[in-house]
What we know:
By secondary structure, the chain is mainly alpha-helical. The chain has a single domain, classed as Peroxidase, domain 1, CATH 1.10.520. It contains 13 helices and six strands. One calcium ion binds next to α4.
Amino acid sequence: MVFKTALSALVFALPAVLSLSIKREADALVPEKCAFLLPIRDDLLDNLFTNECGDAAHGALRLIFHDAIGISPTVGGGGADGSILIFNETELAFPANDGLDDVLDDVGPFFLKFADVLSPGDFVQFAGALSLAACPGAPQVEFLLGRPPPIAASPPNLVPEPFDSATTISDRMGSVGFTPDDVVALLSSHSIAGADTVDPTLQGVPFDSTPSVFDTNIFIDVLLTGTLFPGTAGNQGELMTAIEGTLRLQSDSEIARDARTACTWQSFVTDQAAMAANFGAQVARLAVLGQDVNKLIDCSSVIPKPPSLIDIPEFPPGQTIADIDQSCDLVKFPNLKTAPGPPLVVPAIPQADSGDDDS
Ligand code: CA
Ligand code: CA
């Protein structure tokens, strides 16, 4: 099977992220009302994520967004309420939620195991916050406890699509309080993510060259002039990428080059700390969409601090500043060094074993 080869290649390429047990905070610091979360946390880190910034962690992170964004001032919805778990028959049929069936296959048994003590909305946000703990460079994000059960499925058409224009995405996200710059910060998540269904012939195709590391490569890679498709051409929402084995979303490409957001996008290339801090702040806002924050309890101390990262932004082997689509009008793209070696062929992200290989 193809992913066995990919796994060994990934370990070879990224020795720094070999899985180690994630360092947990001293449990004495955890408020009494949050203490019941500790064994749940350990179960999710050890058995759902297997202490890796891999497919299961990426799926849990994606689920945060797809659950929370299901809210609108005009058509309603409960936001970060866990509706995507409880009303999955409705929400998984939305085209923008394509591929989330595999994620629910992975997290579902853990959700059911703890459903008597953790509400669906809390579970989604808790698992998502924990998923970052395995990813070097990711921020330690807030976790608030106490979301009531969801009342109804999200209305349709609220989750942005990869083929939506920058303006469409900006309008949708703006309707629930996120500026275009906030959206760029949220797109940092694509540093640790991949596509399972955009190209129907490929699963686990990363969006940047390092899907196990929350580095700034996504902001470099997406601005390189596209020259190839990792699989087939002509897929909706996909544009040509510059690095073999990676997939470029049309929406990422547009937002990276849009006059409103290009300078913010470029600013993250050499500022991993700002990327992580801004992303963490926007995830915290996402996690309480539709919720009354005053009724939630701060259990953030249960979330482990992710491994730190010394980020050295570089152009991928064989590429230089000449390959960058300069998009920020105010500041030149930084003239980075080029990483040594032959052109990259980024391996697919090994898929979590959910016993379900369809999509
Ligand atoms: Ca929801
Ligand atoms: Ca990355």
